[in-house]
């Protein structure tokens, strides 16, 4: 390759997709264009590899679905053991049923949940477990002290408002979940937004939650 | 948007209903990846919003049983983005045609993207598999030449200029371009060794 082509290639590889890139590419002859396209595609693939889902705790969608573990909505080991005994469901069977519903759970996970605290189990999975052992999800939840963090303090003002309380009730109704689980999801969603780097004020956060609940309520019976 | 109508055929239906949350947890990476890739040059729409709207839509109208959730969710993201593009094109054309008399029955929007939706979903999923291979190849590159892997990740992955990376590493920008170019070639050879075609 000539020095000029080398420089052109360097410019091309720094150019993001768009008309500018296409213009530079058009200046290569057919043979070299093929090589340049390969190099561009390699770079585009690296870009795609670098752009994927955010960490769970920064994902508002995961929070809404109850997939972010919540220290205030934790699985109670003793309650789970009792519920499994009462419903005569063995750990192997429970793991199998949860797997059938799409959860990635091993029998060893169920044994662990029955013997010690399980801060990694999210509310949505607790709900699935509760349905399989035929018990209210709240009866599987251990009450723990709220862990205070600066981020929680940001959300505390909002949680104390009657509007937030109303939104939680509506979210619980539309998602057919308990008020406690709805509150956990709404709080996690607020924290995900803050974790993501946005710092909306109180009114913006409430408006965002309102818009989510409204979207779920709208056209529900279609 | 109703992904259920678009995606689920009789052949896709199984008898075991799956939890939507569990399915999202399993496939959210691919949903975000597809959204980011499709919206890379779109300054008006964000992947996070698209994924959020897709899931709200699915929660509102749960699909019942789906055999291939990955395909279902990829299609849902793809359809959502196309709906956004179509409505944007529609609005744009309405503005352009504001002074003209539109022909009756004209349908504005991106009809050209509807060629073969099923094969496009397959293409997107194959592309995601290639992206997975790229992640593995980058991890491999990191072990034999961490600097090359870092430079490529910063320049191509994070879209930082060679000058920015040069300033950070205390070398010239032309040196960074050399390293990045060599790293791209190495990545291609690593992918070819895994029989991944570019």
Can you give a write-up of this model?
The complex is a heterodimer of chains A (222) and B (198). Chain A is mainly alpha-helical. Chain A contains twelve helices and two strands, in the order ααααβααααβαααα. Chain A has a two-stranded antiparallel ribbon with strand order 1-2. The longest helix of chain A is centred in the first third of the chain and has 21 residues, at 30-50. By secondary structure, chain B is mostly helical. Chain B has two domains: 3-109, no CATH class; 125-193. In chain B, 68% of the residues lie in helices and 0% in strands. Chain B contains eight helices and no strands. The model of chain B is unreliable at 1-14 and 99-115 (pLDDT under 50). The chains are: A mainly alpha (222), B mainly alpha (198). At the A-B interface, helix 1, helix 3, helix 4, helix 8 and helix 12 of A face helix 2, helix 3, helix 5, helix 6 and helix 8 of B.
* SS-derived structural category of chain B: mainly alpha
Terminus-to-terminus distance of chain A: 63 Å
Low-confidence parts of chain B: 1-14, 99-115
Computed Rg of chain A: 25 Å
The coarse silhouette of chain A is elongated
Largest interface: A-B, 49 and 55 residues
Order of helices and strands of chain B: HHHHHHHH
Average predicted confidence as pLDDT of chain A: 89
Q: Give the amount of beta strand of chain A, in percent.
A: under 5%
Quaternary state reads: heterodimer
Poorly predicted runs of chain A: none
- What is the helix tally of chain A? 12
- Total helices of chain B: the number is 8
Number of domains of chain B: 2
Indicate the proportion of strand residues of chain B. Answer: under 5%
- Sheet with the most strands: spatial strand order of chain A: 1-2
The rough form of chain B would be described as globular
> What kind of sheet is the major sheet of chain A?
2 strands, antiparallel
């Amino acid at each position: 390759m000539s020095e000029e082509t080398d420089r052109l290639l360097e410019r091309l590889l720094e150019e993001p997709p768009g008309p500018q890139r296409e213009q530079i590419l058009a200046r290569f002859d057919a043979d070299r264009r093929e090589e340049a396209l390969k190099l561009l595609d390699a770079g585009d693939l690296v870009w795609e590899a670098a752009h994927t889902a955010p960490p769970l705790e920064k994902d508002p969608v995961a929070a809404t679905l109850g997939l972010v573990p919540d220290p205030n909505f934790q699985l109670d080991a003793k309650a789970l053991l009792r519920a499994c005994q009462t419903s005569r469901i063995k750990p192997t069977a429970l793991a199998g049923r949860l797997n059938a519903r799409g959860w990635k759970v091993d029998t060893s996970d169920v044994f662990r949940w029955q013997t010690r605290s399980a801060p990694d189990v999210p509310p949505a999975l607790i709900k699935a477990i509760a349905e399989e052992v035929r018990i209210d999800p709240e009866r599987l939840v251990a009450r723990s002290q709220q862990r205070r963090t600066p981020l929680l303090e940001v959300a505390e003002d909002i949680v104390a408002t009657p509007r937030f309380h109303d939104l939680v009730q509506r979210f619980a109704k539309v998602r057919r979940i308990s008020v406690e689980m709805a509150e956990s999801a709404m709080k996690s969603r607020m924290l995900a937004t803050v974790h993501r780097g946005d710092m909306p004020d109180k009114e913006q956060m409430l408006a965002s939650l309102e818009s989510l609940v409204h979207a779920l309520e709208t056209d529900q019976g279609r | 948007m109703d992904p259920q109508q678009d995606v689920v055929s009789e052949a896709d239906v199984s008898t075991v209903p799956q939890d939507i949350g569990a399915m999202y947890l399993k496939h959210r990476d691919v949903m975000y990846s597809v959204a980011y890739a499709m919206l890379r040059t779109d300054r008006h729409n964000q992947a996070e919003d698209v994924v959020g709207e897709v899931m709200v839509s699915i929660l509102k109208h749960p699909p019942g049983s789906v055999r291939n959730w990955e395909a279902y969710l990829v299609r849902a993201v793809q359809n959502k983005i196309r709906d956004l593009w179509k409505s944007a094109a529609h609005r744009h054309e309405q503005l352009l045609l504001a002074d003209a008399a539109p022909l009756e029955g004209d349908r504005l929007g991106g009809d050209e993207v509807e060629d073969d939706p099923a094969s496009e979903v397959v293409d997107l999923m194959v592309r995601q598999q290639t992206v997975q291979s790229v992640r593995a190849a980058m991890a491999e590159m990191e072990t034999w030449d961490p600097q090359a892997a870092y430079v490529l990740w910063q320049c191509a992955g994070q879209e930082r200029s060679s000058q920015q990376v040069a300033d950070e590493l205390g070398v010239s920008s032309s040196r960074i371009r050399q390293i990045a170019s060599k790293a791209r070639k190495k990545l291609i050879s690593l992918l070819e060794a895994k029989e991944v075609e570019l």
